[in-house]
Design a protein that fits this description.
By secondary structure, this protein is mainly alpha-helical. The protein has one domain. It has four helices and no strands. The protein is rod-shaped and about 100 Å long. The model has no long low-confidence stretch (mean pLDDT 85).
Length: 129
């Protein structure tokens, strides 16, 4: 396996999820572009004598070509989208950890011992009421 670069998927689970997203995107794109190719084939059959004279095998090839390119395009789009979403989620987790550490440090600074030491140094709070 090649070394991972910054910005790529980090865990095997992310690889599996990206693979599933690519598969689902490929199936969706193949179906969508297959419908478009079928519509174009119907129009070509209706309007074009050249298309009507093509062999059945070549018509199947044209249909499959549209489905293949559509599957590739949609699969790539879905994987890129998943990659961006995974990077965003990792950034949110990283920021939450930084914020948690900040809150922990803040809570430690305001501990009862520190407050008691401030009272001894500054003296008790006087009430003018």
């Amino acid at each position: 396996m090649p070394p991972r670069r910054h910005g790529q998927l980090a865990t095997d689970d992310e690889y599996n999820q990206a693979g599933w997203q690519g598969f689902l995107g490929g199936m969706n794109g193949a179906a969508k572009w297959g419908i478009y190719s079928g519509i174009l084939a119907g129009l070509g059959y209706y309007f074009s004598p050249v298309y009507r004279n093509l062999t059945f095998q070549f018509k199947v090839y044209l249909q499959m070509s549209g489905m293949t390119i559509g599957g590739c395009i949609e699969a790539e789009r879905r994987v890129r989208e998943y990659e961006r979403r995974a990077m965003r989620m990792r950034k949110i987790k990283r920021d939450a950890e930084v914020w948690r550490r900040y809150e922990q440090d803040y809570a430690e600074q305001a501990s009862p011992q520190k407050v008691a030491a401030d009272v001894v140094v500054k003296g008790p709070v006087k009430n003018d009421g």
